[in-house]
């Protein structure tokens, strides 16, 4: 109850008192009321959960677990990972969309978060209205690889071969709408060629067929290709990022190697449910910015081909909206549909 209301209600009881005594008594009463009010607890008070909408063991899972490991030290509370794969990341994403907006249930989102609105006629959540951006953790890219027995030795060779054999060359993907798929479709569109996408259930079976000569090329992740490239089992032609990578410093970008303006990348971003309090978002953003400077993340930048960011929430929101618009046009133009 406000102090003024207490004093006003009992005004008769104060008659005859010196003004100074009334002021002192009022101050003491204010202190008493303030002391009785419960203090707002500092975030976090309990375990934080990061939902990964993919199975354990993949690249996204590795980034999530490294993130959890680093930010729990800063936040002072355990951060655990919950893998909820299914329906092209929709299952895990919806779990967070419907969670309490208190900062204890978070989403490690990826490329799919920006692409799914174009692939599906209807989603059980709105990727913008139902989420609060926290931070763009990192960006990543793919590597264009071929079998070392192939006569394709460069991006220019790939373009020339695809033009000479329309529809005959094929490229392996991790599924419809994945970064490996859309990177190849973007290549088709910009080079004005037609390579056929062959979907697989993950990178491993696709690479197995590339090694066996069943497919001609892949736009695959650094993690899946690095050791094979180093061992001479795959030939790397270029990286799909806009700039060269420290993971493959000798490789040109696709843009440099024969397709000017080409760039295709994936990303990792942290989200909370919409209406999560601003101070909670700010605390998490601060923890991410510190985490990406750690030795563990520097190691990931080499092993996974990551470009560390650790952005403010508004930068993640702006970046994803741009990606969403960009891939929407490609999905429409290429008539890509989820079966």
From TrEMBL:
Matches recorded under Gene3D superfamilies: Bordetella uptake gene, domain 1 (3.40.190.150), Periplasmic binding protein-like II (3.40.190.10)
Signal sequence residues: 1-36
CDD domains assigned to the protein according to its UniProt record, in alphabetical order: PBP2_Bug27
Pfam assignment, any one: TctC
Record flagged with keyword Plastid: no
InterPro entries: BUG, Bug_dom1
Sorted UniProt keywords: Signal
Family, as annotated: Belongs to the UPF0065 (bug) family.
Protein name, entry field: Tripartite tricarboxylate transporter substrate binding protein
């Amino acid at each position: 109850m406000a102090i003024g209301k207490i004093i006003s209600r009992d005004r008769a009881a104060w008659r005859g008192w010196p003004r100074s005594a009334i002021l002192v008594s009022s101050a003491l009463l204010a202190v008493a009321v303030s002391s009785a009010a419960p203090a707002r607890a500092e975030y976090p008070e309990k375990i934080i959960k990061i939902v990964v909408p993919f199975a354990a063991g993949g690249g996204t899972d590795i980034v999530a677990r490294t993130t959890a490991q680093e930010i729990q030290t800063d936040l002072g509370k355990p951060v655990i990972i919950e893998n909820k794969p299914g329906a092209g990341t929709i299952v895990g994403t919806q779990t967070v969309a419907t969670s309490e907006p208190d900062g204890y249930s978070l989403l490690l989102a990826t490329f799919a978060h920006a692409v799914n609105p174009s692939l599906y006629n209807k989603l059980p959540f709105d990727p913008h209205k139902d989420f609060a951006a926290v931070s763009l953790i990192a960006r990543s890219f793919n590597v264009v690889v071929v079998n070392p027995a192939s006569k394709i030795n460069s991006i220019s060779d790939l373009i020339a071969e695809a033009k000479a054999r329309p529809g005959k060359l094929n490229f392996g993907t991790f599924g419809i709408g994945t970064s490996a798929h859309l990177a190849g479709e973007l290549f088709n569109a910009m080079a004005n060629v037609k390579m056929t996408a062959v979907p697989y259930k993950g990178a491993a079976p696709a690479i197995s067929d590339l090694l066996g000569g069943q497919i001609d090329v892949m736009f695959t992740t650094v993690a899946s290709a690095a050791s094979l490239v180093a061992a001479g089992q795959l030939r790397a032609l270029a990286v799909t990022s806009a700039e060269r990578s420290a993971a493959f410093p000798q490789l040109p970008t696709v843009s440099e190697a024969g397709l000017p303006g080409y760039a295709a990348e994936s990303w990792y971003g942290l989200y909370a449910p919409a209406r999560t309090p601003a101070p909670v978002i700010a605390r998490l953003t601060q923890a991410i910015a510190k985490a990406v400077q750690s030795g563990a993340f520097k190691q990931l930048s080499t092993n996974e081909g990551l470009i560390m960011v650790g952005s403010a929430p508004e930068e993640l929101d702006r970046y994803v909206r741009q990606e969403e618009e960009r891939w929407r046009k490609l999905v429409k133009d290429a008539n890509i549909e989820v079966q």
